[in-house]
Amino acid sequence: GAGVSQTPSNKVTEKGKYVELRCDPISGHTALYWYRQSLGQGPEFLIYFQGTGAADDSGLPNDRFFAVRPEGSVSTLKIQRTERGDSAVYLCASSPQNQRGNEQFFGPGTRLTVL
Amino acid sequence: SQQGEEDPQALSIQEGENATMNCSYKTSINNLQWYRQNSGRGLVHLILIRSNEREKHSGRLRVTLDTSKKSSSLLITASRAADTASYFCATDPDRASGSRLTFGEGTQLTVNP
Predict the structure, then answer these.
(1) For residue A38, what is the nearest residue in chain B, using CA coordinates?
(2) CB–CB of A108 and B41 under 8 A?
(3) Coil, strand or helix: which one is A1?
(4) Residue B68: which of B90, B45, B52 has the closest Cα?
(5) Minimal CA–CA distance to B73: which of B112, B31, B34, B30?
(6) Which of A22, A66, A91, B59 has the most Cβ atoms closer than 10 angstroms to its Cβ?
(7) What is the arithmetic mean of pLDDT over A102-107?
(8) What is the dihedral of CA B91, B96, B97, B99, to 10 degrees?
(9) Do A42 and B105 lie within an 8 Å CB cutoff?
């Protein structure tokens, strides 16, 4: 079956612009996670959804970052007034449900470059 | 912020040798997972060990967990060139809600043919 997909695979934008990154989780997975990974670092948690609601958004760095999952499937990560420091690979993951001990299935990521 | 530290940061070995990577963490956990990442993109889950387990095997992988020392190790036996990748440990915290993973900084493994 299809895995987690993310679009676009690469996004180049200018400082100050708005960007949207999309994640299509594995069908039927109720838990969805966003992470950000800088070069040479491990992924850092941003936000996770259980169904349509954001169950934990404590990893969002500031109010320029926002994410939605209106129908409990596809999610969009939105970044306003982008800064050069936002450049990173944004990873999405899903898991069947938010039970302890579920592995997370990762997408290939969106590489965001802010010039 | 990263909870875990992994060592070594980079490891280069010959095909057929064993590779051992270590991970330390700071807070109490429900489980610890190891992931592999090729070319800086998506991660692939390798193995999960629960806080009440001490050792687990999966194929050529062996994971140990010492909760008293807050550390884990991943052993890859009989390594292959295709094992070249970055390896990350990730902790699932022991708390009432949520299953967010906290990743270490990773070990870059190079297996030379």
Answers:
(1) B40
(2) yes
(3) coil
(4) B52
(5) B34
(6) A91
(7) 88
(8) 20
(9) yes
Distance CA A92, CA A23 (A): 6
pLDDT attached to residue A106: 94
Q: Within A1-115, where are the H helices?
A: none
Contact A94, A29 (CB under 8 A): yes
Residue A1 has pLDDT above 60, yes or no: no
Decide the pairing of beta strands A110-114 and A10-13: parallel
Per the CB < 8 A criterion, the answer to whether A100 and B99 are in contact is: yes
Among all chains, which residue has been given the structure tokens 């800064």? A83
Report the distance separating Cα A37 and Cα B52, nearest Å: 30
Average pLDDT (A7-30) is: 96
Q: Provide mean pLDDT across the span B54-75.
A: 97
The confidence score (pLDDT) of residue A103 equals 85
Query: Six-digit token pair at B24?
Result: 């330390």
Structure tokens at B105: 């900084």
Q: How far, in Å, are A5, B14, B44 from residue A24 at the CA level? A: 5, 39, 17
Question: Is A103 in Cβ contact with B48 (below 8 Å)?
Answer: yes
Alpha-carbon gap: A80 to the closest alpha carbon of chain B (Å): 22
Token pair for B45? 């889950």
